[in-house]
Amino acid sequence: MAVYTQVSAEALGEFLARYDVGELVSAKGIAEGVENSNYLVETTRGRFILTLYEKRVNAEELPYFMGLLDHLADKGLAVPPAIKDRRGVEIQELEGRPACLIKFLSGVSLSHPTPAQAEAAAIAMADMHAAVADFTLDRPNSMGVDTWRPLFEKCGHSLNQIAPGLHDDLAHAIEHVTANWPGDAFDRCAIHADLFPDNVLMLGDDVTGLIDFYFACTDIRVYDLAVMHSAWSFDATGRSYDAAVGDALIRGYSSRFPLTDVEQAQFPTLAAGACIRFALSRAWDWLNTPADALVMRKDPLAYVRRLKHYAPDLVKHST
Amino acid sequence: MAVYTQVSAEALGEFLARYDVGELVSAKGIAEGVENSNYLVETTRGRFILTLYEKRVNAEELPYFMGLLDHLADKGLAVPPAIKDRRGVEIQELEGRPACLIKFLSGVSLSHPTPAQAEAAAIAMADMHAAVADFTLDRPNSMGVDTWRPLFEKCGHSLNQIAPGLHDDLAHAIEHVTANWPGDAFDRCAIHADLFPDNVLMLGDDVTGLIDFYFACTDIRVYDLAVMHSAWSFDATGRSYDAAVGDALIRGYSSRFPLTDVEQAQFPTLAAGACIRFALSRAWDWLNTPADALVMRKDPLAYVRRLKHYAPDLVKHST
């Protein structure tokens, strides 16, 4: 939510000269993305997002992300691929950082999507899953099921500083959910893995873009829907479940990929896993961000409450 | 340099409906301005800056700033006036903050202006001074010559934490400069009072906008040039003076408003005053911002070094 690396207008002008995109007209640092620096750049030929990758994104993984975006854009999906410079290069360097000039997409991220908007977004996700059937690159999920226990152990009993009993609740939930995690029978493909409302651009009820693919990875296809369901169907505190939005997500997704009986039966486990994943990453950030830092800490308990919705028996102490 | 107040797409859509500006297409929080929240908003009819005024700007003073921008825009100058809504209202409220929808201007702020660019910017400032001859609103300079001693005394001997001897150097400089400050013989008018390169938008050597008028006030006209000269003619550390840029500023401004003999003779005093003003405000911020805060502190000594350039006898200890 900040511009970490300043790019002077002079350096940006030189950078753009590598591309066939016209002359620089305007550039504004934008407060978007978690830990990258982003500029909204206007040239005589159009608008672009310039992203400089800071520490969160591993530069070695950029070819995966950019390859996925190219693949999806080639199939006509509304995603923001990197622009190629005159030599055909997408991943550049600027101010000592990996940097890409990226297609600008219209649309706004909604704070309170309606059921119709949720349905459209779930259909867009399903279209993405259909489009990756012939995508050949692979990336393990850096926040996948195997990573939860090690991250949980790094947090340790400090978890109880967030809420008394959180350590035992999460220990129990991780044990139960990983033991019941679906096996090889479930479809796997490239998934977004972070499709919050923030990461869907819309105009009215139309999806104009899926963005921020920097957690994309190979994992269980329906897990992507479970992440989305846990992110979209609750108020920010995680206390209030909106069944109309939740149902719309399932309905939209199922219109492209009908859920099998076993997927339906396992959906609460997948959604509980999504809640564990975000509760843990938020807890880690919470324990490692000073309370008076200017970065806003996101409440881990908002995901523990969601976990309780999907798996009431797993949360006994902390909410 | 941040977005302090979040505006949801839904609230923004409702806000824009007050105006005759088309439908919302895109909105990005931008890292611009010191302590306001700004969004770059695109509609079906154009682009705009949405500003929510945070604590730095006194809401009671907005009519002065907006009146000045209207006056300058009516005379054809490249400044960003507020857009009127359907009822003719410019100053609105949004998310509990005073808010204006403002004309978007093309152009980029330069980090290293050339002499030709500096000359064009100084001409644009002179054009602004000519255009306010019949501007009738008045605002005292909140960082003017009378405010330096009280701010200096608030900083107190803590100044020596910034550099040993800084307290005595500034005490001496304030005493000398205020004693020699020009009187009523100098033209006074509405001045920008903060025309750093950041606040001038350019395309090539053409000025496309003067922006950020939130320090504008009634004060000595040539003091505005002195502020600009001290801001543009040095490297960021204040150590290295660029005579070609400094001369270009004087040449450009003089092409519209030739400096009188007494203005020329007093120019070093005015520029020394500008250095005191920015050294003091930076020192105050420095002493009141924790070193580990995410806000970047600007080095007060960069202005003490400039002060030494204009008035070598006044700085004996701290640089």
Automatic annotation (TrEMBL), chains A, B:
Gene Ontology biological-process annotations: threonine biosynthetic process
GO molecular function terms attached to this record: ATP binding; homoserine kinase activity
Leading EC class: transferase
Pathway(s) it belongs to: Amino-acid biosynthesis; L-threonine biosynthesis; L-threonine from L-aspartate: step 4/5
Catalytic reaction(s) noted: L-homoserine + ATP = O-phospho-L-homoserine + ADP + H(+)
SUPFAM superfamilies tied to this protein: Protein kinase-like (PK-like) (SSF56112)
EC numbers: 2.7.1.39
Keyword set, alphabetical order: Amino-acid biosynthesis, ATP-binding, Kinase, Nucleotide-binding, Threonine biosynthesis, Transferase
NCBIfam families the record matches: PRK05231.1, thrB_alt
Protein family per UniProt: Belongs to the pseudomonas-type ThrB family.
Protein name: Homoserine kinase
Organism encoding this protein: Sphingomonas tagetis
